[in-house]
Amino acid sequence: MTTTRPNVLLFGVGSIGSVYAAILILSKRCSVHVVARSNYDALQKQGLTLRSSKFGDHEGLRFDGVYRTCEEAANSGTRFDYVVCSNKALLDAKPSLSDILQPVVTDGTAIVLLQNGVGVEEPLHEAFPNNTVLSACVWTGAKVLGPGEAEQFNREGLTIGVDHAEALSAEQEQKQLDVFVEMSRAGGSDVTVCDDIQSERWVKVIWNACWNAVTTATQLRTNRFLEASPQAMMLSRAIMGEVVDVARAKGLTVPDGSVDKLIEQCTSVKDGLPSSMLDDYVAGRPTEVEVILGTPLREGLRLGVPVPSLIAMYSIIKALDWKNAHPEEAKI
């Protein structure tokens, strides 16, 4: 770690990445750089615009560096203390996230994951065994309004903790966590530090595995799906219950009543909910099926936990991904 202001590189400046890039700029505690692909021109020329019910409206927020690739960021000569990943979590993507990050992860770099799902940390530990990995559950409403412009709505918050690496001292990991939390809070983020971040991630994936899957498979918002048949609620509870069983078989903590709580949170929304997975499918983008359904499914099979509903939903979403990737072959 440097003794000057930390250098932070954000990889992925979509909706969530834009919000947390703005938070870090507003903190004035670090130098903020970004790797921007589709919105490079806008961020380079006019900076970032954030519309927010919590943080207010900000136009022309400027970065200390805007790059097209991680190679370009590395060639700038800047050593990055933190690399924040707010891109889609695609475990089966080629090249992998670890491959992409290789040029910008050096001795002392902490990797921060602002991504959905479970199982995202393991490939990074394998590729970077001597680097701290900070993992977060993101509880933030956000959407892209246009190139270089995003909106934050509803709540904003992070639950974050260390995903411990065997080769590192807990003291080093904690210090890097503390600095990142302080920067984020200085920018106005509502940050909760958690000693058991994997349990938190798995509790969140109970929600995602169900509602992302059923909305994408049916092309319906949650309320319409649940209205369609009495069996829809049975399926929803089965999906959630299987994720709970797998998490507990792994030795993770899932509070009693979690499924009931998550069902109530969804059904209390009068107009129902769409999902990020549904948005990705409709837009023709690969879905985060592996980290939302694939990891719970594979862990269930490994541990001998029955997961028939996860098998069904995973198979359907994988088929829909294949359909998007092979439109000609998919024609009926």
From TrEMBL:
Protein species of origin: Naganishia liquefaciens
Pfam families registered for this protein in UniProt: ApbA, ApbA_C
Gene3D superfamilies: N-(1-d-carboxylethyl)-l-norvaline Dehydrogenase, domain 2, NAD(P)-binding Rossmann-like Domain
SUPFAM superfamilies in the record: 6-phosphogluconate dehydrogenase C-terminal domain-like
Start and end residues of each Ketopantoate reductase N-terminal domain: 9-161
Ketopantoate reductase C-terminal domain location: 196-320
NCBIfam families: apbA_panE
GO molecular function: 2-dehydropantoate 2-reductase activity
Protein name: 2-dehydropantoate 2-reductase
Keyword field: NADP, Oxidoreductase
Enzyme type, top EC level: oxidoreductase
GO CC, one annotated term: cytoplasm
Catalytic activity annotation: (R)-pantoate + NADP(+) = 2-dehydropantoate + NADPH + H(+)
Function: Catalyzes the NADPH-dependent reduction of ketopantoate into pantoic acid.
EC numbers for this chain: 1.1.1.169
PANTHER family: 2-DEHYDROPANTOATE 2-REDUCTASE-RELATED (PTHR21708:SF30), PROBABLE 2-DEHYDROPANTOATE 2-REDUCTASE (PTHR21708)
Domain of life: Eukaryota
Biological processes, Gene Ontology terms: pantothenate biosynthetic process
Membership in a protein family: Belongs to the ketopantoate reductase family.
